[in-house]
Amino acid sequence: SAVISQKPSRDICQRGTSLTIQCQVDSQVTMMFWYRQQPGQSLTLIATANQGSEATYESGFVIDKFPISRPNLTFSTLTVSNMSPEDSSIYLCSVDLGQIYGYTFGSGTRLTVV
Amino acid sequence: AQSVAQPEDQVNVAEGNPLTVKCTYSVSGNPYLFWYVQYPNRGLQFLLKYITGDNLVKGSYGFEAEFNKSQTSFHLKKPSALVSDSALYFCAVRDKKNFNKFYFGSGTKLNVKP
C-alpha cells in the first residue's frame, strides 16, 4: 500500500493569512483527495484532485477558499486561504487504492487559527 | 442517499473483555463497507473492509467485523480488548456510483481501561 507524507503536521496561524499543506505519495496515483475533520466531528470531503485538471469541489467548498494544486501523480497541495478560527480543523489528504483497499490517509495537518 | 450511522459516541470496556463498536448503513444494493481507526494526532488507518464473500471479515490488530444484511449492520468486534486499542473508530461506506466518495460515520471513541 502507498505511504503518504503530509506537511506540516500542525500549525498555528493568524486569521487572515493562508496556509499551504503538502501531500506526497510514494507511488503514482490518479486521484488524491482532501478531507477536513472539524473538532469532534467526522470527516468531510473537500475536493478531489486529478493530475492535469482542476480539482472537483464538494458542496460547500470553493476554489477561492481552498485552492488545490496537483502538478504530478505523486504530489498535491491544499491551501486554506484567508483563514478564520472556523477553519481550525485537521486536514487530511488521501489516495484511492482502488475498490478493494479503499482510501489510505496521511497523518493529517492540525490547523489552529487564532 | 448512502450513509452510515454510529449510534454510540463512546464505548467503555475493561481490558481483556470483548468489545463491539456498532455501525449501521443505508445503501441501495450491496454495500462496500470499511472500518478505520484514528489514534491521537494521527491520520486514519485502514482496519478492514467488506466487499463481498464471507460475512465475517478479519482485519488488522485482531479486529473483525460482521456484515449483517438483514440488520444492515457492520459492527466492529474484538474478542479481548487492549488498552492500546483506545482510539477513535470510523465506519465508512463507499459510494457505489461515485467510487471517489466515502461517507464516514460520526466516529466512536473507544476507551479501554486497565
Short description:
The complex is a heterodimer of chains A (114) and B (114). Chain A is mainly beta and 114 residues long.
Strand and helix layout:
The complex is a heterodimer of chains A (114) and B (114).
Chain A: E1 4-7, E2 10-13, E3 19-25, E4 31-37, E5 43-50, E6 56-57, E7 68-72, E8 75-80, E9 89-96, E10 103-105, E11 109-113
Parallel strand pairs in A: 2-11
Antiparallel strand pairs in A: 1-3, 3-8, 4-5, 4-9, 5-6, 7-8, 9-10, 9-11
Chain B: E1 3-5, E2 10-14, E3 19-21, E4 24-26, E5 33-38, E6 44-50, E7 56-58, E8 64-68, E9 73-78, E10 87-94, E11 102-104, E12 108-113
Task: Write up what this structure looks like.
The complex is a heterodimer of chains A (114) and B (114). By secondary structure, chain A is an all-beta fold. Chain A is 0% helix and 52% strand. In chain A, the strands form 2 sheets. In chain A, strands 2, 4, 5, 6, 9, 10 and 11 form a 7-stranded mixed β-sheet that branches. Chain A has a 4-stranded antiparallel β-sheet with strand order 1-3-8-7, with no helix packed on it. Chain A is globular. Chain B is mostly beta strands. Chain B is 0% helix and 51% strand. In chain B, strands 2, 5, 6, 10, 11 and 12 form a 6-stranded mixed β-sheet that branches. In chain B, strands 3-9-8-7 form a 4-stranded antiparallel β-sheet, with no helix packed on it. Chain B has a two-stranded antiparallel sheet with strand order 1-4. Chain B is globular. Chain B starts with a strand and ends with a strand. The interface between A and B is medium-sized, with 24 and 22 residues.
